[in-house]
Design brief:
Strand order of the largest sheet: 1-4
Order of helices and strands: EEEHHE
Distance between the termini: 27 Å
Structural class: alpha+beta
Helix content: 25-40%
Number of strands: 4
């Protein structure tokens, strides 16, 4: 697992950034799945939706899966986060991945 404190930067343009953790948390591996926990749940949701999923639904599904499995598998919190540029703040959740 790797712990890094992200720089506080404002996202600009048409950008949506999904991150594996929030604040001072550590991104956990999911060894039996062969990925990090965040990557596993991200790829799983994309596959289940055949690549057609709204960002809001994608983030909600990934976030729920990661939070649940981080506690069950590692007994630690891992809370994915999202950063959105100001131009997309009001509509990012309805945009398709």
């Amino acid at each position: 697992a790797v712990a890094r404190k992200p720089k506080k930067e404002t996202v600009s343009g048409n950008v949506i950034v999904l991150s594996a953790t929030s604040e001072d948390e550590t991104a956990m591996g999911y060894d039996e799945k062969g990925h990090g926990m965040f990557t596993y749940h991200l790829l799983k949701k994309i596959q289940q939706s055949n690549g057609s999923v709204k960002f809001g639904d994608l983030f909600q599904s990934v976030s729920e899966g990661v939070r649940r499995d981080a506690i069950l598998k590692n007994d630690k919190n891992q809370t994915p986060s999202v950063s959105v540029s100001s131009s997309l703040k009001e509509k990012w959740e309805e945009l398709y991945f």
